[in-house]
Every structure is written in structure tokens, then in C-alpha cells.
Specification:
Elements lengths: L4 H13 L2 H8 L3 H15 L4 E4 L2 E4 L1 H25 L7 E7 L1 H18 L3 E7 L13 E5 L7 E9 L1 E6 H7 L13 E4 L12 H5 L9 E4 L2 H9 L5 E4 H4 L5 E3 L9 E8 L6 H16 L4
Helix pairs in contact: 1-2, 1-3, 1-4, 2-3
Length: 298
């Protein structure tokens, strides 16, 4: 028995939305029409695909199995559609790029106008988040990541090695004084990452390991986002370890205790094996390589 593609499309939307109503809004169908399609699919398969609850829908074990297969099929179709849309002469079509909030907000987005001017037929989307999206399931087409990717079957291109150094705002240093040696940090306020388990790199809180064992009046602020740490340092909260790609953008931050720095972190550009021949991926990769080679951070 062949499954109906229209019904599978509706099932995919309902599984993602968790309700007939929200799926109907996505598909521009009424709730009753969506419900009928799901009921018909369940009857044709002879299994229940959803548990119905007052708070929404939950996939059954059979529903989970079907949803995994359907997601893979629709991801492949989406990828194929994108490749077919690319013209012979100029790359075109959608391109979803994901990276961390900090790198995307402070360095990548200021470069994007040039890329859009060069390739006006590419429909670019930037997804900025510190959690890693699943590229093999096409949650994004490509990513800029700090550290080697953990997912298998991804092509990885090293872009640059970066380190973090210590910075504070000019106003903070005027008020609290300039630390001249690591021992001086004992009396200064510092800003560090708040949750090591969710950190984008395993060595993000290197500063805590080099602080003097006895601290005087210095306070610690913990923020679970590097961009938030950057904003805190900018506003004079304290001394913070920051990657140099962020600090090149402002004259308000001053490097302190220059002999202290974090471990090296390799930035990678990664994308799925299936997109190896994508022109959109190729031109964005080459654009990144050129812009990062031109950048003064490291």
C-alpha cells in the first residue's frame, strides 16, 4: 500500500506543531480538515499515530517511527529542491546559516551586507543560538562552530584559531584602577560564564583557574551567554575574558594583564556531505574564508 503524500505532509506538520489547530494555521487548512487527514492516515495504516490529550497531541511509538522517516524524506526533498533551484551561472535559493549568538551578533552580521550585495539571489537566514542545530536533519544548511563538530557525516573546514583575553571598560578601570599582574585580580570584579555544562567551549571559564586563591573585595558575576558577558564588561561591571573578534569592534574596552589568555579555539565551517556540490555553500564558505583572512582578530 502506497502512503498518500498529502496525508504525510499533514502528519509532518501536526507532529511538529503538536496540535491540529496550529498545524492547520501552518498549512492554511481548517482544524477539521487536518483531523480528517490524520484519521484517514491512521485508518489506512491500522495504527494510532497520536495520543489525544486535553493539552495537545503526543506521538505514539508508531507515530515516532513514522515521524523520523518522514522528517528524513522531507529533509532530502528540501535539500534536492534547493540544489535544483541553483542556476548554472549564479547561486540562488535559500541558505540557512547557524552560529553562536556572540559570533553572529558581533562579527558575522556586520559582514552580511557585502555577501547579500554579491549574491542577491541567495535568500539568506541567520540562526543565532548557542545550542547546535542538527545539520543532517536540515535544521540549518551550514554552521560556524567553535570546536570540531560532534555530528558524523559533516564536512569541516578550519577557518581560524581564536583566543580570549581579559578586558574591562575604560570607566571601570578609571574607578577601580588598572590591574598590572595576575595577583591584582584578587581585588577586582570579574564576569564569567554561568553554566559550564551548556558552554559552547569546554575551556570557557579558564579565568577561574588563574585567579588568585585568596580574593579580597572582588565580586563575580556569572552570565550564561558570551554576548551578555561582553555587554556587562562594556557597561563597567568588571573584568571579563572575551574573544578578540568581539573587542575589535569597540574602543571602550581595554585589554588588561596581557600575559593572561585563554586556550586556543579552532573555528570551523561545517555542512552536510549531501551539500558538497552546492553553489550556495561554496560561495558562502569562500566569502567567510576571505573575510576572516582580512580580520585582525586571533
Amino acid at each position: 500500500m502506497a502512503m498518500d503524500w498529502d496525508k504525510l505532509r499533514v502528519f509532518h506538520a501536526v507532529a511538529d506543531a503538536g496540535s491540529f489547530t496550529h498545524a492547520g494555521e501552518t498549512l492554511n487548512l481548517s482544524q477539521s480538515a487536518v483531523s480528517r487527514q490524520i484519521h484517514s492516515l491512521e485508518e489506512s495504516l491500522g495504527v494510532a499515530l497520536f495520543h489525544r490529550h486535553a493539552r495537545g497531541l503526543i506521538l505514539t511509538e508508531q507515530g515516532e517511527l513514522l515521524n523520523r522517516s518522514v522528517r528524513e524524506v522531507f529533509a532530502k526533498l528540501s535539500m534536492t529542491e534547493g540544489l535544483l533551484m541553483e542556476g548554472k551561472d549564479r547561486p540562488k535559493g535559500p541558505l540557512k546559516v547557524t552560529t553562536t549568538v556572540a559570533f553572529g551578533s558581533t562579527w558575522l552580521t556586520p559582514q552580511i551586507k557585502e555577501f547579500m550585495d554579491l549574491y542577491p539571489e541567495i535568500e539568506l537566514s541567520l540562526l543565532l543560538m548557542d545550542t547546535e542545530l542538527d545539520l543532517t536533519m536540515r535544521e540549518a544548511d551550514c554552521a560556524v562552530r567553535f570546536g570540531a563538530p560532534r555530528q558524523p557525516d559533516l564536512i569541516q573546514r578550519p577557518l581560524k584559531v581564536v583566543r580570549s583575553h581579559l578586558y574591562a571598560s575604560a570607566d571601570y578601570l578609571k574607578e577601580r584602577g588598572m590591574p598590572l599582574a595576575p595577583a591584582d585580580l584578587a581585588k577586582h570584579d570579574i564576569v564569567v560564564y554561568g553554566d559550564d555544562a551548556a558552554a559552547p567551549t569546554t575551556t570557557i571559564n579558564w579565568l577561574l583557574s588563574v585567579l588568585p586563591p585568596k580574593r579580597e573585595e572582588g565580586r563575580i558575576l556569572r552570565v550564561n551567554n558570551i554576548y551578555g558577558i561582553y555587554r556587562a564588561a562594556m557597561s563597567g561591571v568588571g573584568i571579563a575574558p572575551l574573544p578578540s573578534y568581539m573587542t575589535r569592534l569597540t574602543s571602550n574596552l581595554v585589554q588588561v594583564v596581557p600575559e593572561l589568555h585563554g586556550p586556543e579555539n579552532q573555528i570551523y565551517f561545517v555542512y552536510p556531505e549531501e551539500l558538497r556540490n552546492s553553489k550556495r555553500i561554496a560561495v558562502f564558505r569562500d566569502f567567510l574564508l576571505r573575510k576572516i583572512a582580512e580580520a585582525s582578530f586571533g
